[in-house]
Amino acid sequence: MSATNERHEIMTAQRNDDSFPTLWDELEWRGLVHVSTDPGALSELLEGDPFTYYCGFDPTAPSLHLGNLVQLLLLRRLQLKGHMPLGLVGGSTGLIGDPRPTAERTLNSRDTVEEWVSRLQAQVSRFLSADGDNAMRLVNNLDWTAPLSAIDFLREIGKHFRVGTMLKKDAVAARLNSEAGISYTEFSYQILQGYDFLELNRQYGCVLQSGGSDQWGNLISGTDLIRKVEGKSAHAIGTPLITNSDGTKFGKSEGNAIWLDPEMCSPFAFYQFWLNQADADVIDRLKVFTFMSRAEIAEYETQVADEPFKRAAQKRLALEVTTLVHGSVATQGAIDASGALFGRGDLTTLDELTLAGATSELPQAVGTPGAQIAQLMVEAELVTSLGEARRAIKQGGVYINNVAVTAEDQELVAADLLHGKYAVLRRGKKTLAGVTAKAD
Fold this sequence. Notes:
CATH architecture of the largest domain: 3-Layer(aba) Sandwich
Distance between the termini: 37 Å
Radius of gyration: 25 Å
Binding site for L-tyrosine: 54, 189, 193
Largest sheet: 6 strands, mixed
Number of strands: 13
GO cellular component, one term: cytosol
Function: Catalyzes the attachment of tyrosine to tRNA(Tyr) in a two-step reaction: tyrosine is first activated by ATP to form Tyr-AMP and then transferred to the acceptor end of tRNA(Tyr).
Low-confidence stretches: none
GO molecular function, one term: tyrosine-tRNA ligase activity
CATH topology of the largest domain: Rossmann fold
CATH superfamily of the largest domain: HUPs
Helix content: 40-55%
Mean pLDDT: 92
Structural class: alpha/beta
Number of domains: 3
Number of helices: 20
CATH class of the largest domain: Alpha Beta
Family: Belongs to the class-I aminoacyl-tRNA synthetase family. TyrS type 1 subfamily.
């Protein structure tokens, strides 16, 4: 099956849960609403005639990440209701970047931003349907900001913003109280985002914007601007920032974001991330990141309470989200690799891309045929010394590609290097390392 056909099948299977009286009720149950302009009006809006709504994604990196996935799935849920999504990738705002809490962003070159715009547009397109009367439309705010002169911008847009109000926005206030301060460039970001909403309202009749709750000040800058300039009402939804049950930021793995691009976060690593979710978090993750029904999720909630050792909810979560993002073929590869790494499958059956992705997540040693496996164990930090490595081998607890190492002085041979490049060292049942052949 082609990737296009598979994506179509995935999207065709997606449904909102009709056990809820309204879509707004479902969004609240799933924990997708942290703040909004008017819950009652929004609920009525969602149940009424089709309308246009949008979310913006700035190209400040070459890929979207899990925080963006929350927005994409919210956009998709509204599209399933019959409403018309605009996916905005910010060719102009990406040249500036919204204010971070601590320091100025490094400005990327125009060529870099342009490239990243294309990459993000392709990613956004994968999660929204381009078919039917409410087909997704991609827009770029550079189209309406580039022709605008600085004088026109200040006269027509800037005059509607009050500095006192702008200073109260959370991101701005945080920066003003930091040692770094804030530049006029980043201070102006909220005006640009407000202008985006105004232009989309004018061009497409767009009446709703969604974003993370940390962007709330920027979201309502648009609703306020539309009210002042056009005399119309518009709405905003701020989704909660997803955190773990211990209060730590969700979507980070050892300091690195979980990206949607398979070249930046392999399907194997992506699958493992979801598989390792804590019992206290997994049900909330199922609500936010899958299209599973309330009834299905309730069954997994019972299993988590009664049989947590089976990790059934985590396995279903990893399956659903990895399939959503990377497709079923890559997901099955990740599942096969996960089993094979821990001795429950044949590593030789894994294709090179899957094996490379799986081993890249492990501690590493570099070796060539003739290298002693005991020494490779030391280099990969599976043990602290050669003596410890030899004792582990003697005790029968060391494996190369799931085959027991039987001699303390056993050497790596060419046949051990799968696809001529990779091998997997294992000590005991769960301690793994990758061996990669030296480059010529």
